Automatic annotation (TrEMBL):
Produces ATP from ADP in the presence of a proton gradient across the membrane. F-type ATPases have 2 components, CF(1) - the catalytic core - and CF(0) - the membrane proton channel. CF(1) has five subunits: alpha(3), beta(3), gamma(1), delta(1), epsilon(1). CF(0) has three main subunits: a, b and c. It comes from Arthrobacter agilis. It is found in: Cell membrane. Belongs to the ATPase epsilon chain family. GO terms for molecular function: ATP binding; proton-transporting ATP synthase activity, rotational mechanism. This is ATP synthase epsilon chain. Its main location: membrane.
Amino acid sequence: MASHGELEVEIVAADHFVWSGAARTVNARTANGQIGILPGHAPILAILEAGELSVEPVNGERLVVGVDGGFFSVDSNRVVIVADNAKVGGSVTPESV
């Protein structure tokens, strides 16, 4: 569980778990453009566009996840990302899923 001043992030794909943990920031591309989420962000529900999203974990190196659509929500420092398909480390193509 993330402490005060951190985000609690969970990333899942339609058929598998991708990643969860405490993070400082989350960046993603939405139907309305690029968005960055920091602790204390206002609640939001957005459509996720195909591309890469990045997470800066509290411990560890920056995580890049390729997604091909879905949605994400932010509420009370909890970020939930549900992607149709997702792959840690790169883009999602029909050959890689």
